[in-house]
Amino acid sequence: MAEKLTFDQFKEKIENTFMQHPVVVDNKYCQWFRDADLSKEEVAAFAQQFSVFSNLFLLACLNRVINAGTLESARETKEILMNELGVIYNNKKAAVSTDMTAEQKDRDGDPAVVSTEGSVQGGTFRFQAAHLEWLLKFGAPVGLDFDTMGKRKHGTKETLHFCDELFRLFGAEDYNVAQGSSFAIENWAAAGFWKDLIAGLEKFKASKCPEIPLAFFTWHDKIEEQHKEHVWDELRETFDDPQFNQDEFIRAGMEMLDGTMVFWEGLDKQRKEIAAAAQA
Questions:
Q1: pLDDT digit string (tens) for 102-127?
Q2: What is the phi/psi pair of residue 90, to 5°?
Q3: DSSP state of 272
Q4: Where does the pLDDT of residue 71 fall: very low under 50, low under 70, confident under 90, or very high at 90 and above?
Q5: How far is Cα 186 from Cα 256, in angstroms, rounded to an integer?
Q6: What angle do CA 194, 76, 127 make, to 5 degrees?
Q7: Cα angle, residue 54 at apex, residues 52 and 55 outer, rounded to 5°
Q8: Nearest CA to 193 among 213, 221, 226?
Q9: 164-199, pLDDT tens digit by residue?
Q10: DSSP classification of residue 93
């Protein structure tokens, strides 16, 4: 039986495993996307696969709610799930500006349909605040619609592998598997890939598709910046839980990151196929 690490030792182990995983430090697709002269076909291919992941993530969240070990844990995941479905975070302290320009709303989020802080408790539901509906607006200028986005049948085998791993690991009944995969996903989401996507899309918008909205991506970048501040505090709480198993936590987190990497590798493979077909 492996000797149990102190919290500081365990944190160092996390930094040498999760934080050094290729999907966190060397995401080839995101690096390409950031610097590429994107075509509408390339953006459409990306948007379709991202919409499948985003929509099937609802199933992983629901599975996590069902399998939650505590009422608090169930509620934490309901915050994510209900917001994904269109319940706006209720932030009573926030001052809402009503005179924002269309450009400001695209960059900062329309205050009528988004908020980055607060709780779904007492929040307002709006159909147009659902994340899939944001993505539908994003996909429309590159030729996609409700029939070509968000459904499992549109996913590549790599995208579906990632979605199935989310369902299996993020939604697991086992406490350590659920916590390890959740922590890994939080660190992946906060590692900067949103900024890479935004950089590539801003160039695409400026040069080829001025009507494409980017609020889905800019909103997620902002909210992940906030989450980044809390992940180590959350790990501290997990570490002190009597159920906590260090080895199982690490194993599940690395499996989740491996599954995430498959998603991006699938996108990288797809964009190379598009480029090869264009040159043929």
A1: 665 565 555 555 665 778 899 999 99
A2: -90, 105
A3: H
A4: very high
A5: 11
A6: 65
A7: 65
A8: 221
A9: 999 999 999 999 999 999 999 988 988 889 999 999
A10: T
Residues 86-93, mean pLDDT to the nearest whole number: 83
In the numeric block, which tokens belong to residue 223? 């909210």
* Domain extent listing, the chain: 7-68+131-279
Q: Which regions of the chain does DSSP assign to beta strands (E)?
A: none
Domain 7-68+131-279 classified CATH 1.20.910.10? Answer: yes
Residue position matching structure tokens 């491996």: 258
pLDDT, average across residues 75-104: 77
Across residues 142-150, what is the average pLDDT?
A: 98
Question: Six-digit token pair at 111?
Answer: 């205050």
d(CA 262, CA 227): 24
pLDDT score for 234: 80
| CB contact set of 264 (below 8 Å; sequence gap of 6+) | 23, 27, 28, 29, 30
Rounded to whole angstroms, what are the CA distances from 88 to 38, 82, 112, 186, 204?
Answer: 32, 8, 9, 21, 29
Coil vs helix vs strand at 90: strand
Q: How many CB atoms lie within 10 A of CB 249?
A: 27
Question: Which residues partner with 87 through β-bridges?
Answer: 125
